[in-house]
Structures
1.
Amino acid sequence: MLFPMEHTKPVTRAFGILTAGGDCPGLNAAIRGVCRAAHIRYGMRVVGIANGFRGLIEGDARPLESEDFSGILTRGGTILGTSREKPFKAQADERETVLDKVHAIKANYRALGLDCIVALGGNGTMTTSYLLSREGLNVVGLPKTIDNDIVGTDRSFGFHSALSIGTEAIDRLHSTAQSHNRVMVIELMGHKAGWLALYAGVAGGGDVILLPEIPYDICAIARHLEERRKSGKTFSIVAVAEGALSREEALMDKKERTKYRAETASPSIAYRVAREIERETGMETRATVLGYVQRGGIPSASDRVLATSLGTAAADLLAEGAYGRMAALTGDCVSSVGLDVPADKVKTVPPAHYMRATAAAVGTCLGG
Ligand code: F6P
């Protein structure tokens, strides 16, 4: 339960803030939310750490003042920079490296005079944050990712903006698909979880949606597209998550699958699905990969609101000294969960999720 502590002395006097993992729209809105509430409302000192955990290892940090987090609400990317540095992740023969990095992080934490670190990131960042808190550091997490796959929060900021971009792309593909009587395959991000493909696919009226959670059968897809053709529809839209996989692949072990994918899904899964559809149906098929467009640009209004709410909730956690937690959205409430909840997990689309039923109810083929 979060509550503002405006009239009592905040437990945290100084904190470092960093953004880690892939960027997304809403990061700056969240930075602004945390910093405005923590600095202006609670009087805390703020240290901006550059490029995620790499900056914490290297001691690359600077004080942030009010003007640094002013005028950034609508800006895409992150003013702090980011990296995919995971200090606890190393090969077996690199144990020393892990120890060195954790040692450097602890030393910089002390040298910068921090009482806590606020880490904005996805699953990997929450795992690192949890491990750092087990090492004795105070950490508060904020869930961001366009993939919406963080356990412990109903939604992460970034997702809604990417959904809008994905939906607009599908809308645009519709008209060209119709003009040319083609099947258009569009690939959306999401390696392990298909939230973005499912939501954008439904929002854009996709005829087929393929998710990592439902291994696909190309024959079922071909049948669905042929039935559409028989009913007089001369074009189709297929939305594919980048981690979508066939039934055959689902039966393979990781090594086998990596090899098979490299051989068959080049340059990415959308191209393989397009080739398979063309082979099975004879329909002219094209592939489009949205890629990093999904992560760029200004945040949607919904993401600005979510990022600001979760950011200010993180400031409340700092004020209370409620460390080792991640601010979260639960239903219509802002709350928090222990960092152990998201650590080392991925929130996939559950079999009974209403969006699967929604897609099926409007006649969308989910590939299974
Ligand atoms: O931000 C998450 C994500 O968008 C994944 O869906 C995607 O696979 C990944 O990032 C790719 O990002 P990068 O190339 O920066 O590692």
Note: The mean pLDDT is 96.
2.
Amino acid sequence: MKQDFIALADFSTDTLHGILSTGLAMRERPEEFRDSLKGKTLGMIFRKRSTRTRISFEVGILQLGGHGLVLSPNELQLSRGETIEDTARVLSRYLDAVMIRTFEHEEILELAKYATVPVINGLTDYNHPCQAMADMMTLRRHFGRLEGLKLAYLGDSNNVTVSLLAACLKFGMHMSIVSPPGYTLAPEVLNPFRKEAESLGLQVVLTENVEEGVAGADVVYTDTWTSMGQEDEHEKRLRDLGRYQVDSRVMSLAGPGARFMHCLPAHRGEEVTQEVLDGEASMVWEQAENRLHIQKAILHFLMK
Ligand code: CP
Ligand code: NVA
């Protein structure tokens, strides 16, 4: 049976820790994995722009001895109405795995349903699991553990927030989501996670109050206030989310030794100040680098 990589909730903690361990090993000893996916081809469909996801997957498959093909939806018959179902069936005859970055989460579920090769989520409007795995790899490498850490997420609750929440629950971390009304997770998204957190004895706190949310946090995380597809709301979002900017004061309210994280691309002077992004506590370049290592580990897990 083929395995997809669409949401962290689909995997056990042990499996996810195993992927993190492979990612860490790939970072330290890349030569051991050279040619482990020799002759395999990964297709990548991007309905949204990308720097990190595209380049890290493309370089990653190459470093494992395979080949990456970027498939622009505008050049595929998809743009002329061929269904995702038929596209999935056809691509499965040529490729060993397909990565897709798209808008509606339903599209990746549909692709996975009809594809007979692994489908990897490179971001949807709902979640961004590869990013959260790179973030967990970054934290495990820095802190030496994940269990018991507290992550505070500030700003717009979006696809990155959902995967971070899923990751926190899988890895035994507490999370606070600090957002104003209208920018928190919808109850139908949040409630299943909340239930699980309760059964695991983990804290998931939703608050509008920055001081309360970041108190005792080991990690302060933010993302853009305007995700891809929301560009028309940019001005309103700047006004509504202004109080949630991560600056030096916010960092000083977090726990001792707290680190700053951002999936990037960042908007200096909006969700984060230049000082914090470029400051000593910032782990953003490590996160970006670890996208490469963890995606190689995910490819290895799915395709080997
Ligand atoms: N963080 C992230 O997914 O970046 P890209 O949009 O550049 O791929
Ligand atoms: N939330 C952002 C993440 C970009 C990597 C977006 O969806 O645009």
Note: The longest strand covers residues 41-46.
